[in-house]
UniProtKB/TrEMBL annotation:
GO terms for biological process: signal transduction. It is found in: Cytoplasm; Nucleus. Its main location: cytoplasm. GO terms for molecular function: DNA binding; DNA-binding transcription factor activity. Belongs to the transcription factor STAT family. GO terms for cellular component: cytoplasm; nucleus. This is Signal transducer and activator of transcription. Signal peptide: none annotated. SUPFAM superfamilies: p53-like transcription factors (SSF49417), SH2 domain (SSF55550), STAT (SSF47655). PROSITE patterns: SH2. Keywords: Activator, Cytoplasm, DNA-binding, Nucleus, Phosphoprotein, SH2 domain, Transcription, Transcription regulation. It comes from the Eukaryota. It comes from Trichuris muris.
Amino acid sequence: MDVLHGYLSHLAKLLEELCTESKESDSQWKLTSEIQAQFIGRLGTIQSLRGLLAQKQATLKTADSGNDSKQNMLQEISKALDSANKQAGKIYEKLLDSRKALLSSLKRSVELVIAARCLLVDDALQEWKRRQKMAQIGLLFEREEELLDQIAERFEYIAEEVWTLLTVAQWFSELLEQSPKLPDQNVPQCLAMSQQILSALTDELRAIVHSSFIVSKQPNVVLKQHNKFNAEARLLIGDKLGIKFFNVKVSVKLVGEEQARSLEEGVVSLPDAPTVAKIGISSLSESEKDSQEVNLEVERESKRVKAVFKSKLLKVDPRKSVCKNADDQQVPVCERNYALLFTCSPFKMGGVLFDNVWALSLPVKLTVHGSQERLSHAMILWNHAFSPAKTPFNIPDAVEWNQLAEALRYKFKYQTGATRPLSKSDLDYLAEKVLGQPLSSAMQPAMVTIDMFCKNPMRQDLDFSFWSWFFEITVLVKQKLLRLWDEGLIRGFISRQEAREVLLSLQESCFLLRFSDSHLGGLSVSFATFLEDGRREVFPLAPFTAKDLEHLSLGPRIARCPQLLHIEHVYGSERCFEKSVIFRQEAEMRHKSQAVNPKTYPYITSELIMVAHTAVPGISEAEASPSSPSNGICPSPGDDLSTICECVGITSDFLDNPINLNDFDWNSLGVGFVAPEMFDTPMADSDLFSCLEDQNNVNLDDTGQRQSDSAVCLQSYRINKSKMIPCDNFNGVWMYPQLSSTLCLRKWNNVWVCPLLLDTFSVISEQISDMDTTQSVIGRGFAFIAFSSLCIVGVPRMN
């Protein structure tokens, strides 16, 4: 059973007992009242008989001694008086027993109230507060408001029972004050005990009301100057006790940790708690106040009694350095804790005044600059995860790794919004980073200090802490990699050496995505390739940060990286995936986006590409080949542009000066040109390659690569005839797109092209200067491989 539900179930049984005892006290008071009335009536009878007897005795003394009738009357009166005394004695004994039973019932009721209040406040409500606290660092808190409503019902119930018991105790005190004062001193004794019970019940009622005033919706964990924040304070006892909330106000102000501690310990009173910032709204009148006030209102439908704040941190007072302990160690700004103090104005319930009702929020951090936010989040995580719910400012200096691991698991999911949690291997890797060595059973329990967590460098050669490294990874995942992480395409938390071992152990060529441990918020791509001596080696690409991926996302980077063109699989969290899965989201987004209208946007669009340089020791420049990833420097189109142009007969003047494509001699490209008049239908794969051979007098091998030295373009881009199929007719041109999983068709000024490593797109865009020229080129019909930027493979269709 859930812990909170267990508390509520136990509490229901206690409240049932309290209800029964409360009814017993009420019944006992009624019985005591009746018996006392009987006793008082009997005393009246005795008093009358005594008066009558004295009167008759006086009359008998003045009369003749022989009056027998009068003697008999005296005897009768004396007998009646004796009988009345005996009856009064018996009634008095019943009255004493009834008083004793009523006091015992009230005492048992007080004990049940204390037990129920402790279970409600110290257990059930504290468990709810603990979950609320943990929810701020990522722990899922389901049915938060529903559970709080159930707790509020218990508060209302126990408050009603306490009020009933208070009424009974008050009536009993009044009954005792009206009782005859007899020599046995029973009335003063019972009255003293009754006053003690009244005092205890009043204290319990105040404790219940004070405890029921809580922060039901916490503010942001980090408050920023000039930024808005929302919060909500709620009185859980509701309005069932006849409390008049007319003109009852709730104020909020920001206090420091020392003031918060003093308030919790009762060292200072509310008026003596100084503020550290001005809170209000953006109006000038509010900006002069240290606090903001709103009305405490009863929600019409739910009957919840609450005050809702939509506030703004207007101005932060100058903060002096604070001493943390007796060693006079100053606390940095980001480590100081603050809290919002919610105070309710005085109100009455019956004759009881409630004038000291307040509640503190969970610890918050106060920042005036964005650079303070990262460390502030670290301190909040540590505070919320490891401090007791009842005393949230008692923060430990060290915790066990297992505790921190759970907190990091919650935080990662909360910060990123990921559905895939951190695995055991992920946490083991994090343990190695924070502890400085692999986690082993001999280290149990491994302790982590707050300095190790967020202050000390993660390694001696780094200038950032473990938390800074972890926090920036969460930012990267949230902003750029969430889908890939959730689908398991990112291995993530794995060392470079382990990644190398994994990739070399696989039979098929794969690359792997891992978080860099030497760059903040960096994602590195590790891939395995064959060297010229036949050995396989693993190379990591320089890490990509969120800023890098903002300019060019991960999909295009992988798709157009020469070293990854022919690697078809990515090794994820548990297994290998097809590389094409990475590009699915980008393709879907592109499909949804609207095509550029040339009439409203008469420009040629461009995009960035990634160029990777992978240095491989031991290979000379003479051994370099544009098509081999085992070169000393893996080629990129931008690097080889001049070489490619020289091989196909294009001079440097062509690159430097714009030309008119209407007058351009397409045969000067020297590569893959097909005369417009040759075909009127799409060609099969073999026919296309035969045509290319005939047109250029070159030999193609089985993979569609030219064997002559002049075939740099075809060789560099590895056109594979097994991956070329006919496509639809676009503007009179039949397209044969290269359907590699790393490449996809894109529409460029009404021409469907396969973009190959578009780092030199600007060169092409200079040559095609307007739409008319582009259309005239399309109208001729052509099939060619552009020297660096575009791959258009097709033949014309005769109209």
